[in-house]
Amino acid sequence: MGAAERLRAFRAGYPEKTLAVSGTEWKYRICGGGERALLTPPGGELVNDLAFDLATALAASFRVVYPAYPRLKSLDEISDGLAAILDAENIPRVSVLGASFGGAVAQCMVRRYPARIDRLILSNTGVPLANLVRSVKIANAIPAAMPWPLLRRLLAAATVKLLHGAGAERGFWRNYANQLFARQLTKPDIMANLRIQLDYHRCYRFAPADLDGWMRNWSGKVFIIESDNDVLSAARRKALRDTYPQATLYTFHGAGHAPAFTRPDEYLGVVQRFLK
Predict the structure, then answer these.
(1) CA of 102: how far to CAs of 96, 115, 125, in Å?
(2) CATH code for position 109
(3) Mean pLDDT of the region 187-202
């Protein structure tokens, strides 16, 4: 089955549900019906179908909660919205797989709702760093000044590049990315998320002892997935490892920022082994 057919089957098999949280409408999918729940907050793509192949595979063993982000102002609001979804679905505890920006969400959520989380997977992500505030602020000014037609073309091309061209299915992913920024997301959506990413580095600070109580009281465990050629620098990858010295670590070689797409079978295997 080709990628377009797999995506259609995913959307049809796991239709979006909606939930109003503090006046904001959240959309999410529930994939699978396993006894254990797995929350998969998306990355900077913001939507709940880019990782359709991974969600489909995980749905064979887990009840996967796959949300999309509405336009919000802070990571605390995102964490509160995700907790509300878990409440609505009667899920008391959940494992969290957070990749890229989703890893920032996961790190904030485990500190805000430690009793709700039992396993934390941080994939190709980083911790907040004060020395990045200035550079992130400057970087955010560039898309803010761009007209949306130009910006969305650049974002679509960057998305396909991060997926390493997606191999033989490059044509599908080029079309997917173009439609994502032409039909699903707007410039205000993108800029709101970039402001949240700036806020992450400006307002949050994490330390190795932060999760001692979580590990002691709720048997929490951390798993870090990284790539040796990630777009995240070696210094940022080390900062993540140093913040979670208790974590189990798995390093992909040459898999880039999105090993779930460039090494899907290997990625699925390492995630399943940790969760089991």
Answers:
(1) 9, 19, 8
(2) 3.40.50.1820
(3) 98
